[in-house]
Amino acid sequence: MADMRPDKHPMPVQDAVIRSHNFGEVALGYSEETAIAEAKRCLNCRHKPCIAGCPVKIHIPEFIQEMSQGNFEAAYQIIARSSALPAVCGRVCPQETQCEGRCVRGIKGEPVAIGRLERFAADWHMTHAETAPQRPASNGHKVAVIGSGPSSLTCAGDLARLGYEVTVFEALHLAGGVLVYGIPEFRLPKSIVQKEIDALIAMGVTIRTNVVIGRTITIDELMQEHGFEAVFIGTGAGLPKFMGIPGENLKGVYSANEFLTRINLMKAYKPDASTPIQQAKKVAVVGGGNVAMDAARCARRLGADVTVIYRRTEAELPARREEVEHAMEEGVVFRFLTNPVSIAGDSNGWVQSVRCQEMTLGEPDASGRRRPVAVEGSESDTEMDCVIMALGTSPNPLIKDTTSGLETTRWGGIVVTEDTGLTSRENVYAGGDAVTGAATVILAMGAGKTAAAAIHDVLKDR
Ligand code: FAD
Ligand code: SF4
Ligand code: SF4
C-alpha cells in the first residue's frame, strides 16, 4: 500500500545565508530513510505515465519499487540500463516538465520526487559499488568523438562498451562540456562528473584535451589520415549572443559563458588562480533563464550585490522555479519589465553604470508570449561595475566552416536525420546542442545514445 502523503519529502539544503558565501552543493541529498519513505509514495501505476516523460525512458516505477525495499544497488542498475549519467540527471534534469510532470501523484498533490530518488541511487552506487568498469575487448574499429559534453560522453560510453576504440577530442583543458564549465559546483559537483569520465577512461576511452577540431586538426583529416571510420560531433552551442547596445565592449562586461567558465573551470575566485575575474561590487545579469540564474548566484558567492534584469515579468521567467527561488533566498534582486539600452564606462574603460528602460507587455509574439514594449521616457541609470549577458547561445561555426559537405541550418545547427543522428556527410554523426541549439543534458545524452546505436549498425559488419 502506497504512502498517500500529498507532498514530496523535502530535500535538505544548506542554509541560504551560509551557502551564499560558498560554492558547496546547495541540495544535500536524501538519507536512506527518507529515500525509502519517498519511494513508498509511488503507486506503481499500470500505465507508467512517468516513463513517457523521460527522454531516455528510465524504468521509473521498477527502480522506485526496489528503492522502497531498500535495494539501492538494484535500483541503480535499473536506472543504469537507460542512463549513463544518473548522478548528473538526478541533479539537473528539469524533472517538473519531464518525468515528474507526468506523475499521477502530481494531480492532487506533489509528484513522486523521481529526480531526488535517482540522485540518491546514483550517489549510493558511487559510494558503495566495488566493481570497477571492465575494459571490453577491442573490435578494431576507430571512432572519433568531438567535444566532451553529455552527448559525447554518452556516445563514447555506449561505443566503448561495444568494443570500439574511441578517442574524445576536447577543445578545453578539462573534459565534461557544460557539466564542468557551465553548471556551477553548488548545483553539480565537478567530482561527480569526473567519476563518470574516469569510468569511461577505465573502459578504454582516450580523452585528448586542448585539441580544437577545425584548428588543431580537421574532421576531414581525422577520417582521411588518422583512420577514424566514423565521427560524432557533440560540440554544443557555446557561442554567446549579445544585445548590440553601446558600451558592451567595456571592461567588466562578460558573456555568461565566459564568466561561468572563469569561475567553474579555472577557479578564478581563488586568490592563486592564473585566470582572473573582476571582484565586482554591483553586478547586473541580463536575462531570465537558467544560465542567468547560475551567473547571478556565482556572482553573489563572489560577494557582489547582484541584480537580474529581465524584460518580461516574473511569470514569464524561463528559468526553473527552484533556481529562481534559490537565487532569491540567496539575496539576488530581480528587476522585472526592465531592459538595458546602454552601458557607460569610466575614464579607464571599466563599466560604471547601466541605463535601463522600463517595459510593459503588449500583444503575444510568435512564441505566444506577450511582447515587451518600451515605455517612452522611462530611462534611468543604475551604478554597476560588472554586466553579465545571459541572452542565449548558438553553435560555433568553426566545425561547419572546416568540414566538407556538412549541412547546417540558418542559425548554425547541424542538420541530422532524427532517428540516427547522421549528418549530410557519410559516417559523420552529430547530436546535442550542436544540432538543437541550447537544450538540456538529458536530450543531449539521448542524442549521443541514438548516434552510438546508428554508428554500431553501420560499422559492426565491416
Ligand atoms: P556541451 O555540454 O556544450 O559540450 C560541448 C563540448 O564541446 C564543450 O566541452 C566544448 O568545449 C567542446 N567543443 C566545442 N567546439 C569544439 C571543437 N571545435 N573541438 C573540440 N571540442 C569542442 N541543462 C539541464 O538539463 N539542466 C540544467 O540545469 C542546465 N543548466 C545549464 C547551465 C548553464 C550555465 C548552461 C550553459 C547550460 C545548462 N544546461 C542545463 C544545458 C545543458 O548543459 C546542455 O544542453 C548540454 O550540456 C549540451 O550537451 P552537449 O553534449 O551538446 O554539449
Ligand atoms: Fe526524470 Fe531526467 Fe531521470 Fe529521466 S533522466 S527519470 S527525466 S530525472
Ligand atoms: Fe509512480 Fe508517479 Fe510513475 Fe505512477 S506516475 S508509477 S506514482 S512515479
Give the gist of this structure:
With 462 residues, the protein is an alpha/beta fold. The protein is built from 17 helices and 16 strands.
What is the strand and helix layout of this fold?
Blueprint: H1 16-19, H2 32-39, H3 49-52, H4 60-68, H5 72-80, H6 86-92, H7 114-128, E1 142-146, H8 150-161, E2 165-169, H9 178-181, H10 190-202, E3 206-208, H11 219-225, E4 230-233, E5 239-240, E6 253-255, H12 256-264, E7 282-286, H13 290-301, E8 305-309, H14 321-329, E9 333-335, E10 338-345, E11 351-364, E12 370-374, E13 380-383, E14 386-389, E15 393-394, H15 398-402, E16 428-430, H16 433-436, H17 441-459
Parallel strand pairs: 1-2, 1-4, 2-3, 4-16, 6-14, 7-8, 7-14, 8-9
Antiparallel strand pairs: 5-15, 10-11, 11-12, 11-13
Shape: globular
Number of helices: 17
**What's the helical proportion of residues?**
25-40%
The end-to-end span amounts to 53 Å
Oligomerization category of the chains in this entry: single chain
Sheet-strand content, in percent, reads: 15-25%
The number of distinct β-strands equals: 16
Order of adjacent strands in the largest pleated sheet: 3-2-1-4-16
Low-confidence stretches: none
Class computed from helices, strands and strand pairing: alpha/beta
Radius of gyration: 23 Å
Mean pLDDT: 94
Small-molecule components bound: flavin-adenine dinucleotide, iron/sulfur cluster
Q: Could you describe the largest sheet, including whether it forms a barrel?
A: 5 strands, parallel
